[in-house]
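Hi R.,

Here's the chain you asked about this morning:
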Amino acid sequence: MTGQTISHYTVLDKLGQGGMGVVYQARDTRLDRLVALKFLPPEKLADPERKARFIREARAASALNHPNIITIYDIAQVEVGQAVPPADFIVMEYVAGKTLSQLISGKGLPPKEAIKYALQIADALAAAHAKGIIHRDLKPGNVMVTGPEGSGHPGLVKVLDFGLAKLTEPSGPGESTATAVVGTVAYMSPEQAEGIRVDARSDIFSFGAVLYEMLVGRRAFSGLLREEPAPLLDVPPELDHIVTRCLCKNPNDRFQRAADLRQALEESARALDRPVSLPSIAVLPFANLSADKENEYFSDGLAEDIIDALTKLPGLRVIARTSAFAFRGKEVDISEIGAKLKVATILEGSVRKAGNRIRVTAQLIKAADQSHLWSERYDRDMTDVFAIQDDISQAIVEKLRVRLAGDRPLVKRHTQNVEAYNLFLRGRHCVLRMTPEALAKGKEYLEQAIALDPDYALAYTGMAEYYWTSAFWGFRDPKQFLPKAKSAAMEAASRDDTLAEAHALSGILRGTVDFDWVGAEQEFRRALELNPASPIVRYWYGFFFLRPMGRLDEALSELRRAVELDPLSAIYNTCLAHLYYARGQYDLAIAQHRRAMDLDPGWYVPHWLLAIQYAHMGMFEEAIASAQKACELSGRNAPAVGILALAYGLAGRPSEARALLEELTTLRRTTYVPPFAMAAVYRSLGELDQALEWLEKGVEEHDLIVVTGLRSDPRYIPLHGHPRFHALLRKMNLEP
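And the predicted structure, written out as tokens:
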């Protein structure tokens, strides 16, 4: 066709060909301008009703006047020859540049460039949706980006083919819906792929698939039958959240309007600049140079208190303890630590403690070139330990030029009794190890600290965390331990209302003990107001309040924030994985569990939760293997045994499940066994009445796995139709 004149258009060159026709570059001889001619496949317009509908759609699309939407000039038909049917074609604006497919080219784009294009695509969708026009075929090949030789605006996006996908839809109820999935299956929303009537949210799903491909260089989905896309690794969390929300299978869970999507993209663009503009720091564990190696608790405590003080400073990004301490004893240079934690500066130091004297050295180092920004040595009495911490914190503030609010010490002196402080550090050190033996030892130290200073608010917070941790992980009876945790948290807050963790623990306990979810949210709001940069507050709020309330999107956002603040925390990564599972995003959940296992290979919980997911997915051999690994790593504790029995039962191996049920029944006579473990076995055996009976005991005993997971965990779906299940939700004030 090149060289021919059609109507008043001289065809110059063939530009491309696809399922919706062939495109040529042409010159409009009347107006002396370059145009693009798209010749449509005759078979698409053979049906008169379909052709009439297409013309209506094309007319509507031609009315779109937006800089990011290709302009349609005309719709025409030409007689090609006697033996050939008339050819229908669209005359549209010619754009010099490349398609997004060509720019991506299997390698992806930098996040800032991806956002630049994504914002313009969102603008185009918003303009079209406002006119009632849905694209239906958004994909990288339908997005042009102008080059330097373009319209004077290199990087300008033009979205093509608005309304043309209507051609692929059946014209009437008697026509097959199979034609609705021709050509661009990998970008279609689930509802469009199923032939269901679509709205603007279908375009938002396709947008998510396009943005995913822009970021990583590969398609989110390989075909129509799909689970979830592979996780977006090394992508800013804000962009990951946008893509994840766009690709929700249920349209109600996506962005509801392109304008909302655009706003989220703008916020993400601002966040990308934040790490560059905000000072950032990781405080490594101080080396213990004391003769007594048991003094590690003290050197750790000094570093932890400095971290705690710095997190309260607006404008400073501080990496949390778990991630900063992950490099203890490893031969990793400062620049590599800075790169892994995405911080510009590192504080490292050492502590030598002998009797009542301490020597503390500290160095603030620029991660990029390992140059020293500041260093100091302190030889003091133990009574000056708080002053040393404050001096170091003030030096960091000065060197990083962080704004201070008021003229006050950064490190708060919670007690005047140095020995009580010493005991508190020992107790906190033990509680953080989270084994039954370490927890029991930590309790002893914290009780001694309180005996020396009955007004020591931090020690009461430590006691609350001891009781809470013991109950949550199934070590002790929650019916006995949770009220004690609540009492200790209230004691802490009454002595110091500025302790964010005390309020957050109070929030957990008001919800899980009193089923007072309104009061719980008030406590969490106060905690977030006091310390919005605390990863543990974010984690507790997301996992133990938003999750039981069924507010899973918000819970995911909080856990992502916790992981951003503490990226090497196995707990936060594991709980984020469990939330992906609760949302039905199974591939994301599996990948996240694997990351948590890599972070802490000796911890049983990721294996345990992954076994639950595999069992729910019907992957029984994988579930059994994961549960067996959890049993091995946990010393065969009751939660792990319960899930192994669940996997056996669902796999059709009832004799092995019943043998483990007998093991749990015997164990329950002498020690605490969480009711959820018993319920899991009975449910796997199909004995739903017994399963519900144990869940009822779980609510009565405040089994935290039951209380926090009953509403949102997919494994309880088989019970949703049972009146006793809804009675349990009502008892916990989780259902009207």
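The two ends are 69 Å apart (CA to CA).

Let me know if you need anything else.
M.
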